[in-house]
Amino acid sequence: MLCQFWFKNVFSYRDETVFDMQAAAIEEFSDSLIPPPGDKFSSLLPVSAIFGPNGGGKSNALSALIYLLSRILLPIRTSSDYRNPFTSYVRRYEPFLLDDHSREKPAEFGIVFRTRAAQYQYELSVLSDAVVAESMSYTKTHGQRRRVNLLFEREGGRIKLGAALKEANTQKVSETIPYLSFLSINYSFAEIEDAVDWFKQCCAVNYAVPDRDHRFYSILNEPEVKPGLLRMLAEMDIPISDYEVEEEEGENGEKKRRVWTAHVVDGQRYYLRLNRESEGTMKLLSILPNVILSLSTGGLLLVDELDAKLHPQLLRYLIKLYTDPAENEEHAQLIFTCHDTSIMRNDLLRRDEIWFAAQNEKSASNLWSLYDIHEPGGGRVKNTAAYDRQYLAGRYGADPYLKKMMDWGDPDA
Fold it and tell me: What is the pTM of this model?
């Protein structure tokens, strides 16, 4: 479970930026929270949605997190048979480019995440392909004491080990490979395996890249996917009673797949090619396997533009799969970017689950939650407020372009 993520000098974010999945001390939807393992730990949010104008930094915030995940997992993927057909990778980052000094400085990342056994803190600084600094520590989630245990610290070519890793090699570690990845590839330390398993359960989907919509063909018939997918389609009143995946060999030995969807009309079953379905139905068929996987494993699902091509009611349905403890027994989490303000409502999301991204006067992106906003009188936005209307009216600071367009229609503006 993700607790917190922070980053600096990455894409459009120049200054240190913190994205927090730790629940604030507020009343709304407290039964939807992921409970802590003890009173020394915080409850966690099951969902967070990031809103804001085009170019404001929504996608870049997700990309920063996906890059960190990719930086750990890609060396492991290259050296083993580990594969995750559900996820996309971000293989490169850019530093902030709109000033005279940031491009020469390293990008910095930090993440706190929790497994059943421990809560981990991992930090990584990179400059181009080289690892500049790296560290990792953990705190056991059981027991009376909350003691922080060092796993390793890396500064340039020097690596300091904690007691749990004292047998590990610290010599001749490539500067381009995170030491966490090196340990996972070469050893079987319990703490490292536990932490890396969490990274492997993360899934990233980017619907801004059209050809990735069709990667799901290969997983539609997975035994853990199909029953849940058909159940969810029925609950959403999508008239698909079944589907079949055809495979055939291509010219270069590559497998070509065709998906047929079954529709029952007047007791008769008819099949349609998937490309005859609506764009929204195809989007659902591509996202639901990722949803099912994350809910079954308790993984983190990251989706850019989740609302694209989806009816608002279907979007609400997907969110409620994560906020309903009966559906989300394994404590999965969903983080997504969105433009659809119809879900920015106090009957669906908590104030700390609504985030905004926008650029400041220096063209650097900022990220903040609705709970962080204080009204002119000094108090926070109330949980009875009409979040969507106040956002569109410019009260929350993440829609300067939209407000200007609205003003164009006002002859007195």
Answer: 0.91
